[in-house]
Design brief:
Elements lengths: L2 E7 L9 E5 L5 E8 L12 H10 L4 E4 L9 H13 L3 E4 L4 E2 L1 E2 L2 E2 L1 H34 L15 H5 L2 H11 L4 H8 L3 H13 L4
Parallel strand pairs: 1-3, 1-4, 4-5
Antiparallel strand pairs: 2-3, 5-6, 7-8
Helix pairs in contact: 5-6, 5-7, 6-7
Length: 208
Amino acid sequence: MKPAKYERVSTKEQSTARQRLTKLEDGTPVLEVVDKCSGVIPFKERDNAPKLLVMAQRGDIDTLMVHSIDRLGRNTIDILKTVQEFTEMGVNVVSKTEGLQTLIDGKENPTTKMILSIMATLAEWELKNSKERQAEGIERARKNGRYKNNGGNKPKETTEQFFNKSNVQMCLKELKNGESINRASKIAGVSYPTAQKVLRLAEIEGML
């Protein structure tokens, strides 16, 4: 058994350890990986979570333990994609709160597979309803003369305008200094998604 444990703690919580080695009751070493970030950030866009996917691909881990399955993504769809990806790589995802494990003796757990299938169906249903509600809202706004051709959105910000902002410039400076996205966002006083945008556009524009 080659287990790892993943935790996501909110930015308000005290835990700052990103990676540490502990042991199970039988003495088996467990690599604990922690992300200190908002739950709205997708699993693959967090600072440390993607490392577990790399380890799974290399065969370095065969079990991923979490306190609750909601730690594995920003929403139901993201969680299901994460679980599926680990399972397809032969990693048994074990959730303590829900009492779930995706593999038994190397084969898919039929009970867990059924539960995840139901979750996927409900997620798709909710997404469809959400889009229908949005379309109905737009139609009502159009009839009442409140809907503009651009959907009522503000004019799109150019890359130059984006990088002219002082906090964006500070974030870019910290990224250039080698700080992580999470750390750079905090220093510059911008959101994590904004810091991600800074990194992405800076790479495209050749600023990094």
